[in-house]
Amino acid sequence: MLDKFLPYRLSFTTNLVSETVASAYEALFGLRIPEWRLIAVVAENPEGITQQAIGLKTRMDKVTVSRAAASLIDRHLLARQPHRADQRSHLLTLTPAGHELYRAIVPKALELEHRIFSRFSENEIAQFESMLRRIDEIVLDGAI
Amino acid sequence: MLDKFLPYRLSFTTNLVSETVASAYEALFGLRIPEWRLIAVVAENPEGITQQAIGLKTRMDKVTVSRAAASLIDRHLLARQPHRADQRSHLLTLTPAGHELYRAIVPKALELEHRIFSRFSENEIAQFESMLRRIDEIVLDGAI
DNA sequence: ATGATATAGTTTCATTTGCAACTAATAGCG
DNA sequence: CGCTATTAGTTGCAAATGAAACTATATCAT
Question: Which residue of chain B is at minimal alpha-carbon distance from A110?
Fold first, then answer.
């Protein structure tokens, strides 16, 4: 039963992968997963992005986002720009050091991904990703 | 970058699915995920199984297993049999109430799984599971 | 046998997590 | 405008997690 139960298998595999990835980021860059996610999202939104937008995109709790942001700002990897349109929030952007770190992480992340999926063809990888997204859709559509 | 990064996608999807499953188990049976896993594993090992064997199989921390077992024993869903071969451990078995609960959960779990994967063909489901297992192999083989 | 080392399981403690309450700013409605 | 309701983000608190220390039993080498 359990062994063939897909939510269990999914969780099992994800834990394995996440542990691997988390310890690599920690060892190489001193970043935890939420911190790395913020760096990546902010890097992809060079015009700046609010914490709540990050939360929406990644489904991370706003508390998690808040704490990751605070920690990165402390370390001068992230900066807050005033947000004209809504002064409750700020726009997060990367500092030069943040950019540099991002550029250093990306190739390592891709390399790691490549190793984890080393026995998959391009085609299989695409298919796997598409299946994950279909599951997301189903669950998010509330078809539960 | 992040959006296409497979360890991230995997974690994203798993979180969605796990939240769904966890709240269903909690609401329907008052069980947390580790507790449900113990019930299932013990049900599949009617001759009894030790906590450490459960930990090995499921990769749950021994503390998690210990606490889930204690809680289930408190609720008379699980019982400890003496373990002749090694008295540091016990063999966990289901009580009649535990069996009954197990028989009640299984169809609900399958139904939920069915809903989550409703847009997948049998074939796709098999393929998805096999991919997850291949990832497990790669990571567990230390090919990282 | 006897002492040294290892293992099963529990307990303790520190860390992580996320909900809920809070603060500050905004939006909507009279 | 001015009052109420809502939202962005932080802080406080309680629950969940896991590493490390601990207890009890087992194994192994002499």
Answer: B5
**H helical segments located in chain B:** 6-29, 33-43, 51-58, 62-74, 96-116, 122-140
Angle between helices B62-74 and B51-58 (to 10 degrees): 120
Q: Which helix (H) or strand (E) holds A123?
A: helix A122-140
Return per-residue pLDDT of chain A as tens, 144 residues: 899 999 999 999 999 999 999 999 999 999 999 999 999 999 999 999 999 999 999 999 999 999 999 999 999 999 999 999 999 999 999 999 999 999 999 999 999 999 999 999 999 999 999 999 999 999 998 756
Residues 6+ apart with CB under 8 A from B94: B39, B42, B43, B46, B77, B78, B79, B102
Residue-range domains of chain A with CATH = 21-108 (1.10.10.10)
| B86 strand C contact, CB < 7 Å | yes
Is the reported ipTM for this assembly greater than 0.90? Answer: yes
State, as a whole number of angstroms, the distance between the CA of A14 and the C1' of C23.
38
**Which of A16, A40, A58 has its CB closest to that of B136?**
A16
Considering CB atoms only, which of A9, A33, A37 is closest to B132?
Answer: A9
Half-sphere exposure of B141 (CA within 13 A, CB side): 12
Q: How far apart are CA B92 and CA B79, in angstroms?
A: 6
Which residues get their CB within 7 angstroms of nucleic chain D? Answer: A 50-53, 55, 62-63, 65-67, 69-70, 86, 88-90; B 32-34, 60-61, 63-64, 67, 85-88
Determine contact: B118 vs chain A, CB below 8 A: yes
